[in-house]
Amino acid sequence: MSFSSRTPSLTPSRSPSPTHPVQPDHFYGSEDIQLPPSPNSDGKTWLDPADDPLAHRGIPVFKPTMEEFEDFEGYVSKIECWGERSGIVKIIPPKEWTDALPPLKDQLDGVKIKSPIEQHMLGRGGLFRQENMEKRKLMSVREWAELCAKDEFRAPAISEVGLHARSANVKPRTLRKTKKKADTVGPELVKQEPTDTVLSPPTPPSPTPAVLEDEGKPKSKKRVAPTREAREAALAGRAAHDREFLDKFEPHEDWLPPDTKPSDYTREFCQILERHFWRNLGLGKPAWYGADSQGM
């Protein structure tokens, strides 16, 4: 008679080791401070979004490898836990993927901005209401770029925000001499001119009824609709201007403000630019953006 042993096996079970979340390259908004793991991390050597539920570290920025980036949907699923805390994340594509993209200028030739939206920010004291006004207008890339290059719409240059702007706009203080000048000025003398007494002017002759009838009718200007040939000529001239613009357009440089280089957009300058944007929200001309347009 045999008895089956109920003694448990001493062989340790091989449970899978816990996988830690994908680690961000850095956090935007953390003022370049190397943040250690949270005190609630229980000795973990990696960062966990659950240890920072309010995302005080900043916005997580990821730099995937080409192998990770090939399965973009899978990569986004892995970093979704970070976005649930911070509300937004940034993914910087690998350089080999960016270099393999087709030329941008060839794609811009067929892009049209349909019904751009003008954003009105109303309010003050940190409480704003946004109103979007849709423009019934079709714009080409050239017309959109020319609009963005205007002073009331373009981004501020590096010399116009932060410490650069304060040092550039310093003006010598002038003493006010208005009060002293007012004290030294004597009483104003007004020359009295003699007035002539004029009798009642003669009554002008009354206009004829025909003149009254003509004056009562408003003069309306007739709007002449352009002919088909004129419309086709205008469209052809517009298309020629668009092609000429795209031939000279440099997508990576022409968007820059005056006296500003791409290398000027460091993390520190972007933070200053961000504060400048929020402090001037609602001031100046309302911003436009090409919503629901290809490539915008």
TrEMBL record:
Domain JmjN: 59-100
SMART domains (alphabetical): JmjN (SM00545)
Gene Ontology CC terms, in alphabetical order: chromatin; nucleus
GO molecular function: histone H3K36 demethylase activity; histone H3K9 demethylase activity
Protein name: JmjN domain-containing protein
Renumbered residue ranges of the record's region Disordered: 1-51, 171-262
One of the protein's GO biological processes: regulation of gene expression
Bias-annotated ranges (Basic and acidic residues): 239-262
Composition bias type Low complexity, residue spans: 1-17
